[in-house]
Amino acid sequence: MFTFTKTSRSSASRDIVVILDSLAQLSNLDLERNDRQYLTEQLRTNTSMAVCDVSGKLFLAHLIEKGDRDRQLENARKAGDSMAARLNTAKRKEIQVISFQPKAELTLALVEGIALGSYGFGKYKSDSTGGPTLVRLGLLAKEVTPAALTEMADLVEATCAARDLVNEPVSFLNAVQLGAEIRTLAKSSGFKAEVMDKAKIEALGLTGLLAVNKGSVDPPTFSILEWKPKNAVNKQPIVLVGKGVVYDTGGLSLKPTPNSMDQMKCDMAGAAAVICAFSVIAKQKLPVHVVGLIPSTDNRPGGNAYAPGDVVRMHSGKTVEVLNTDAEGRMILADALSFGERHTPELIMTIATLTGAAARAIGPYGTVTMGTAPDSTFAKLEKAGNAVFERVVRFPFWDEYGEEIKSDVADIKNLGSDSGGAQTAGKFLAHFTTHPYIHLDIAGPAFLTKKDSYRPKGGTGVGVRLFYEFIKQRGKA
After folding, report:
1. Which of 77, 330, 427, 465 is catalytic?
2. What pTM did the predictor assign?
3. Architecture of 3-140 per CATH?
4. pLDDT at 11 over 90
């Protein structure tokens, strides 16, 4: 675990990272003139990062450029990641960050980039010597309060916890174990959690979840998370629903090979985002009532697996014609949306690695959104996404997409045509809630095949920082 400490003086023994808004501020460093000039020349051509090695002690600097605030924050995070790479390559365990500029958010963004860039998943490696070594950071910055540093540390920890969950193989993280992880996180963070077993799921009539689970030897779980502070600003909760498919073969509609199943342990990234967002929301005691719903199972072709052509009567009472068992995420999310009606939410949001169509449309660079919520709510989500640089792109939600999922034998079918696949999935889900609704499709950014700055190869933890910022701003309304 990465640890952060506020310090009151510069350390002569540690490597130093500095953040500046003027090259003249380099004079504050205890360096020889030639070394300061060397850093200055680098920053004139590359403001992101300059490095100077003085007898084995590293001095690293980031210069803030004038411009858009959100882009400044992201540049600082990326600079932090570059610095982390240099420090981890040098096998450093601790550093000191010194700020010579007045904006706390920029200092924290740099620190955040260093910490997130130092993430590694080494649980199953026999030799961990090749992983990140940096674990401690001292911060000398009068503009950053201890509370703000703690908030950033909680957010980094939650994001890395989500990455861990996504990177875990199904040989460890089945639906039951995911429920155990939820209980552990709830106890350590302070939110309430109930993990329902198969018998309770059957009693509740969550038949979409049960249908997907029919091909598995492992039972499903359905988890209810809640954070309800006494000072909540909202009379009705915001409900977050995360897709918890811990592994997806496609079921009887088996995914084609090669490489199509290699990453399918990541199909619960939506659940990880909700669970770990709850962790930091509770730790920071945000004044917002939030409920989380996590339907979880794997999707296998064994046993009495549900089949193309089946008709499933869902928890809501609507019937669904199953055309493809690989469209399983929407089946379990639909039951959770229907279950969520009992909370009469002011807003309900689903987050899921749901469609290849979303990933193909915008790549790994952002999250596709759509739904029935007011434009003002989408604008607030977009603002939150820009602030943490988990950008969202709103897709049209025209009535014509709903025509694509009309069925000849049931109320609706679980698959549309080849066109507008992300939207037809969203239209399917919208059938199961009567409240303002936003769907987030994270199929692109949830799991990367190569490192992208402070977003590592593998699970990225996308959604945690976005949800936290969105809920935090709701608490200020």
Report:
1. 330
2. 0.97
3. 3-Layer(aba) Sandwich (3.40)
4. no
